[in-house]
Predict the structure.
Amino acid sequence: MKILDHRQIEQKIKRLAIEILERHYGEREMVLAGLNNNGLAFAQRLLAELRALAPESMAFTLTRIRLNPANPLEYPPYIESSVEDLHDKTIIVADDVANTGRTLFFAMKPLLNDVPRCVEVAVLVDRKHKSFPIQPDYVGLSLYTTVRNDIDVRLNDDEPAAYLR
């Protein structure tokens, strides 16, 4: 069942960008860190909206956090950025779906190697099945599902959409 079509995804991302800019009014730099592939695709779309809406004086950096969600201890998560890029910066960790919070929890580990100004989480869909102490700060769609359901977000398709399966 389709829960978000292309138009709705674009609307949600624009609203998230507005919320982020309102909360960080006057900020000069911000880092968007997308998780793996879909999180990075979401971060790229969010970045495009932020750049379209933000003042020209605001700088943005896009990076990726890589981790194996199935086994985050075997292959430790890492960020494709230098520590200097994160120091005293606002970091928005972006992912397409927040399920139990486990992936986002482990994604925070590489951010502990420095002292960012602020770390927040933005997700397109939040499932509300948290087992870890992660609560997204910015949510496109909040959805209560059964544990057996799965959310499939396709951002790289010609017609991006999100499905409940």
